[in-house]
TrEMBL record:
Residues 29-153 form the Bulb-type lectin domain. It is found in: Membrane. Its EC number is 2.7.11.1. It is an enzyme of class 2 (transferase). It comes from Salvia splendens. Belongs to the protein kinase superfamily. Ser/Thr protein kinase family. It comes from the Eukaryota. This is Receptor-like serine/threonine-protein kinase. Keywords: ATP-binding, Disulfide bond, Glycoprotein, Kinase, Membrane, Nucleotide-binding, Serine/threonine-protein kinase, Signal, Transferase, Transmembrane, Transmembrane helix. CDD domains: B_lectin (cd00028), PAN_AP_plant (cd01098). GO terms for biological process: recognition of pollen. One of its GO terms (cellular component) is membrane. One of its GO terms (molecular function) is protein serine/threonine kinase activity.
Amino acid sequence: MNMIFSNSTSRFGLCLFLLTTSFISAHTNDTIYTSQILRDNHNDTLISSTGAFALGFFSPGSSKNRYVGIWYNNIQDKTVVWVANRDDPLTDRSGVLRVIEPGRLLLLNGATNATIWFTNISSTVHVPLARLLDSGNLVVVDENDESIIIWQSFDYPTNTFLPGMKLGKNFVSGHEVYVSSGKSNDDAATGGFTYRCDPSGYPQTVIKEGDSFRYKAGPWNGIYFSGSQNLVKNTLFSFGVVIDKDEVYYYNHLLNNAVYTRLVLNEIGVGQRLIWSGDQTQSWKPYVVFPVDNCDSYKLCGAHGICSTRTSPDCSCLDKFMPTDPQGWNTGHFSDGCIRRTTLNCEDGDGFLMYSGVKLPDTEGSWYNASMSLQECSVSCAKNCSCTAYASLNISNGESGCLLWFGELVNMREISPGQAIYIRLARSELGSGSRKREIIIVTLPVVAGIVLLGLGLFLYYHVRKNPKQQQEEIDNQRNSGETHDEQKIPMFELSTMINATNGFSADNKLGEGGFGPVFKGLLEGQEIAVKRLSTTSLQGAHEFKNELIDEVKRRILDWPRRFEIINGIARGLTYLHQDSRLRVIHRDLKANVFSFGVLVLEIISGKRNRGLTLANHRHNLLGHAWMLYKEERSVELVDSCLEYSSYLSQVVRSIHVGLLCVQEEIEERPNMSSVVLMLNNDGVLPQPKQPGFFTGRDVLRSETWHTSNTAASANTITISLLQAR
Ligand SMILES: *[C@@H]1O[C@H](CO)[C@@H](O)[C@H](O)[C@H]1NC(C)=O
Ligand SMILES: *[C@@H]1O[C@H](CO)[C@@H](O)[C@H](O)[C@H]1NC(C)=O
Ligand SMILES: *[C@@H]1O[C@H](CO)[C@@H](O)[C@H](O)[C@H]1NC(C)=O
Ligand SMILES: *[C@@H]1O[C@H](CO)[C@@H](O)[C@H](O)[C@H]1NC(C)=O
Ligand SMILES: *[C@@H]1O[C@H](CO)[C@@H](O)[C@H](O)[C@H]1NC(C)=O
Ligand SMILES: *[C@@H]1O[C@H](CO)[C@@H](O)[C@H](O)[C@H]1NC(C)=O
Ligand SMILES: *[C@@H]1O[C@H](CO)[C@@H](O)[C@H](O)[C@H]1NC(C)=O
C-alpha cells in the first residue's frame, strides 16, 4: 500500500488491518483519513473512484520545486488542474499531506514538521476526511456525514476552471471563486491575471490584470456572453449563469462523462477552453479562445466607439456619433471615444435607434429586471433621462427581460449575429436614411415572405483563424480544382443545412440577428453559422409553399402578396450582401443574384424552374420566360390563377427584373440593391439578353434557386441555393 499511518490508536489499527488484507474496494485510496499521510518520497497518490483524476506531488516543467496537485490520471503528459501550495513550494521531497481535526488540510515538511501550507476553514467537524472526487474536486467532509463539506478545492481554483465549478460570488459568505493564472510553465505561483464572473451590474465574465480589466465577454443573455459567441451550445458540456439573491455564478457541466474539458487561463492572460482528444493525437484541442483579437481589448474604442477587425483602424464611432477629439482619433488615440452629433434633449422627447450586430456594452453599473418585456423596458428607459440605452436581457426563449444602461456605452464591437440594443438619440437624428459605415439595421420592413437562406457563412470557422491561415485555406480551396467563382459563395442545399444545424433546432440557435435567427451548424467538419431570414408573419410564405404543391391554395396568394415576397427577399439579400460581417460572400454577389432571378420567375409563374415541362419545347422556366419576353407575351408567364390586371405594369416589370438577374454574363446582372430600386421605381430598365442556362439540362448543372418541399418547419417556405457540382 502506498499509504501508511502516522498514528496507531485502535481505530486506526482496524483500518490498517482492512488495508493490508485488501478487503477494501478501489474506493479506499481516493481518501485520506486523519490517521493517514500522503508522502512525496513514497510517491503516494490518491486516485478518484473511477480513475479520472490523481492527487499527489509533482514538479512543474523544468522546476525542481515540489507541489501538491491534481491532474488527469489517464493523460500521459501530466496536465495539472489544481495546485495546493502554489505560492509555498517545497524545495525537496520531504512533503507530507494530511487532514487534521477540525477539518484542515496540512502540508508539512516531513523532516522538520514545519507547516508549509494549510487550508482556512469557516466551520469545523469532529472527524474529517479528505477525498478526491471524480470531478477533480478535493473535498474535506465529515466522516459521519459526508454531505457536510467543510472545504473544497473547487472553491479555490488555480489556473483552471473545471466542469462542476461555480465561477462567481456568494453574497452570503462573501466568498468569490475565480481562476488566476500561474507565473509560467515552470512556476505554479500566482501570476498576474484573473478570470472571474463579475456580478457588478448584469453578470459577465472578465479577465483582469491586477485591478485593471483586460477583457469583458459582455453580458450573459441566456445563451452566451454577448461578446463571446464562439462558445455555443454543444453535446459535450453545458454552461450558463445562475443569478439569484444569494449568489451569481457561471457554471459548466459535463454532458458526457467520457469527455475531458477544462478552461485554463494562461500566464499572459488568455483564456482557453480545451477538449481532450483521446485519439492518436492524444492532445488538448482548443475549442474557444478569448480574447480573440484586438477588438476584444477592453474599452479599446472609448465611449460610443465600436471596434471592427475588418476596418482600418479598428475603431470607428457608432452611427450618429462623432469623435470627441477628431485629431486624436485620426492619429489612433481612441480612448476619448465619441460623442453624439446632436445632444440629447430629454424634455423634448428623445428617441431610440436600434443598433444590431453588436456586442452589448459593458454592463457595469447597469440595471436589470428579468420579468419585464422589451416594451416595458423601452418605456422605463424613455422615462428616465439618465438612461442611455436598453436591450433584452434574455434571448434564450424569445426576448425577455430588461437591461438598462446609464451613462456612456463602452466596450462595443461588431459581432454577428449579435444582439440588438436601442440607444437614446436626439429626436432629430431619427428617421434619416442610413449612412455608409453604419452597422444599423433600422427595422427593415416586415416581409410577408420568408426566406430560408442556407448560406454557410463559415463565420465561426473564419473568426477563429488568423488572416494568414484563412488566406491559406482559401488558396488551398482554389487550388483544389474548383473555379474561382464557385468558391466565392458557398451554396448548399436546404437539406444539407437542415442536417448541419440539427433541423434548425433550438439547441443550435446562436442568437437573433437583425433579420432572423442564426444557427450554429457543423458542415464537413467545419463550424458554420447559418442565418435564416424570417419575418414575423410567416403566413404568406406558408401559403406560397403550399401553392407549389396545392392547386387550391395557390389562389390565396394574390399578386400583392407575391410582390411583397419578392421584395422582401430582395431586401433580405441586400441586407445580407451589405452586412459587412459576411465578408466571405462579399466579393462576388452577382452569382447570388442569378438565383434570385430564378426565384422571381418561379413566384410569378407558380412553377418551379426544373419542374416545368411544356409540350412544345425543352425549355426550362428561364427559357420559357425569355421566349415569351422576346415575343412581348411576358404576361403569359403569369400563374393562370392570378388576377393581375390591376398590377399589370408591376408584374411585367418584375419579370423584366427577373430576366436581368439571370443574364449569362455576370457583369450584366444588377446588384441586389439595384434590384430593390428597379422593383420599386418606374425608371427605364436595361434590355435583357438570352438568360444563362436556359435549358433544363444545363440548369441542373448550374446554380439555381430551388424551392424545396422539405420544409424546415410547418410554416416556412424554404429556399436554398443548389450548389453547382
Ligand atoms: C488503490 O487500491 C487498489 C485496491 O486496493 C490497489 O489495487 C491500487 O494499487 C491502489 N492504488 C494506489 C495508487 O494506491
Ligand atoms: C518514486 O518515483 C520516482 C520517479 O518515478 C522513482 O525514481 C522512485 O524510485 C520512486 N520512489 C518510490 C519510493 O517508489
Ligand atoms: C514530527 O511530528 C511527529 C508526530 O507528531 C513526531 O513523532 C516527530 O518527532 C516530529 N519530528 C520532528 C523533527 O519534530
Ligand atoms: C488562509 O488565510 C490567511 C490569512 O487570511 C492567508 O494568508 C492564507 O493565504 C490563507 N490560506 C489559504 C490556503 O488560502
Ligand atoms: C432565460 O430564460 C430562460 C427561458 O425563459 C430561463 O430558463 C433562464 O433561466 C433565463 N436565464 C436567465 C439568466 O435569466
Ligand atoms: C420588474 O418588473 C416587473 C414587471 O414590470 C415588476 O412587477 C417588478 O416590480 C419589477 N421589479 C423590480 C425590482 O423593479
Ligand atoms: C434614473 O435611474 C437612475 C439609476 O437607476 C436612478 O438613480 C434615478 O433615480 C432614476 N431617475 C428617475 C427620475 O427615475
